[in-house]
Amino acid sequence: MNEITLHSPLDMHLHLRDEEMMKLVTPLTTETFSGAVIMPNLVPPVDNLKSLLAYRERITAAQGSDVFEPYMMLFFRQYTEAELVEAKEHILGIKLYPAGATTNSEAGVKALDAVEPTFKMMEEMGIPLMVHGETHGFVMDREKEFLASYEYLAKKFPKLQITMEHITTADAVDLMGRYENLRATVTLQHLIITLDDVAGGMLNPHLFCKPIAKRPEDREALLQAALEANPSLMFGSDSAPHPLSKKECCGCAAGVFTSPLAIARLAQLFDKHGKLDNLQAFLSDNAQRLYGITPLEKKVIVSKQAFVVPAAYEGHGQTVIPMHAGETLDWAVSSIT
Amino acid sequence: MNEITLHSPLDMHLHLRDEEMMKLVTPLTTETFSGAVIMPNLVPPVDNLKSLLAYRERITAAQGSDVFEPYMMLFFRQYTEAELVEAKEHILGIKLYPAGATTNSEAGVKALDAVEPTFKMMEEMGIPLMVHGETHGFVMDREKEFLASYEYLAKKFPKLQITMEHITTADAVDLMGRYENLRATVTLQHLIITLDDVAGGMLNPHLFCKPIAKRPEDREALLQAALEANPSLMFGSDSAPHPLSKKECCGCAAGVFTSPLAIARLAQLFDKHGKLDNLQAFLSDNAQRLYGITPLEKKVIVSKQAFVVPAAYEGHGQTVIPMHAGETLDWAVSSIT
Q1: Domain B3-336 sits in CATH 2.60.40.1120
Q2: Which ipTM score applies to this complex?
Q3: CA dihedral (A175, A177, A183, A189) positive or negative
Q4: Chain A contact for B202, CB < 8 A?
Q5: CB distance from A195 to chain B under 8 Å?
Q6: Average pLDDT over residues A163-187
Q7: Distance between A252 CA and the closest CA of chain B, angstroms
Q8: Is B247 in Cβ contact with A248 (below 8 Å)?
């Protein structure tokens, strides 16, 4: 196959930031994706309906395409029933960050058992829970150590829909298959890189993200689950722009920027493994079924032709370096209708 | 104890580079160390007696102290017997790099079994072999995967003195104890940091080195061996200056610069664990016994008093950022005679 038509691709985990950076990066997603799940880790966090609706308006104003729906999320805290009732129709779910686990997560949760009343209400009201699942342990063990918490929540709240965000380990893939209410997103980079690409040769800040890329056997397990269109797995880019000054420096921020090239690179990857037919499920159908959403119709044709990834994306006074900067991909988005 | 007197501290693994960088960093070692083993991975490598003697002269000219001996090493290649006979009195040993394993190692060895004639001659002539022991595998496994090669060499050439340079794993500590002809150096940073300090929070290029810092249990095993003055273990800083432009950038070079603060920081570390009495063995006596060397007499008094590590060392048009830049240590070198 030299071409594939994708219907309404979805990015189930996206950072759009705010202000000028948001204005730069939002069109780079809305051009090719029909919808995206918008992370709420701004400063201060998006943890009330008023700020969520205002953020949604700012995103909508920055969109480059009319055919795009931002699926909004609240930042997890202990909410009252009244707050959840009011918010429910405006959100896809609530995102939980362990305090301090990643960028702008200082307001996150310190102990899961203290917030179980909110989990209980979410379960009863059918509001999904999305989780950044890392402990504060040794960097290569953080996700694995968190899996027991996922398992605890999946068992204790069997009707609560729980998404393990941006999984990076074979152990997480295993766990995902064991509970019906556990699903997961995976990024582009974790299907491609390992810690070797971050710190095995020269140190590469542009591939440094949280959770950090793991071992070859982890990448292999994630890739196989994606290629097979595992019904519990969804694409979530976790595309996370940082200004150049925060990346090429001493003490570099965590995040890989992939939005503008994600679909082309995924097509190249799935084609390489002879699994192009499964890309539609990974990029949209699984998410539609798991969250019960019907995205806006957007037809994206991806073709086997050269695509030179720009060395940088610039605008609104911002500069962001993408993954594969300056490299030539074999596949390109050739038509969007 | 608030003070310790060290006799002839030795740095058994040091990079002095060449040209202007050499002029900046050499005095920062020769001030406090009585001698140091000089790595030969220049471009081109120091792999003949003529270039070795010329390099030694350049180092001597750059010395800040008369009381300092550079212990020279040849870069491993297949040498003739005549070459080894001629070089023997001028070198402490020969340093083997697997090709491409670290900075300027492209000329290194591709297959150990192809060079056994040289090992055999070195064994017979009593010339030690120093090894950068890493495979080209996954970054966290490279040293562990190389241990079988150390074991093979230690068994096959039982009289060849083999130093496992800059060990970073508990497995290497274990192996060191099992063969009389296997000894090791360990750096300052690998007694203190893990991968968490390099990539667990923000990415820190100034703590990125090869071999990369490993897991907490590895650091613990290295630290205990050092604190106990394990008779097979020697201090080797692997202090490796890179220009600032190669560290705070995209694609940062590997190497931590510790020479000017190593002795003070080691005193602080050994004092913290109540093992100051073992510092002399770790910093000099073990190396003297293992290599049969008698270093120049240099008395270095280290005292419990504040030492603010400079934010950078500058000179000769070079800027190098040290470990602990701008931090205050509790111990300082207070007298050198």
Answers
A1: no
A2: 0.90
A3: positive
A4: yes
A5: yes
A6: 97
A7: 5
A8: no
Closest CA to B119 of B160, B73, B67: B160
User: Domain locations in chain B?
Assistant: 3-336
Q: A217 vs chain B: nearest CA distance in angstroms?
A: 10
B139 contacts in chain A (CB < 8 Å): 195-196, 199-200
For residue range A118-137, list pLDDT tens digits in order. Answer: 999 999 999 999 999 999 99
pTM, whole model, 2 decimals? 0.92
Cβ of A200 within 8 Å of Cβ of B139? The answer is: yes
Burial class (CB in 10 A: 0-12, 13-18, 19+), B66: exposed
**H-type helices in chain A, by residue range?**
19-30, 49-62, 81-87, 116-125, 142-156, 170-176, 195-199, 216-227, 262-272, 279-280, 286-291
Q: Which residues of A touch B203 (CB under 8 A)?
A: 203, 205, 208, 251-252, 254
Task: List CB contacts (< 8 A) between B104 and chain A.
Answer: none
pLDDT, mean of each 10-residue run, chain B (337 residues): 95 96 95 97 97 98 93 97 98 93 77 92 98 96 96 97 98 97 97 96 91 98 97 96 74 87 96 97 98 97 97 92 95 96
Number of other residues whose CB lies within 10 A of the CB of residue B306: 9
Token pair for B57: 């002269």
Chain A nearest CA to B35, separation (Å)? 30
Residue in the structure block whose two tokens are 């605008």: A315
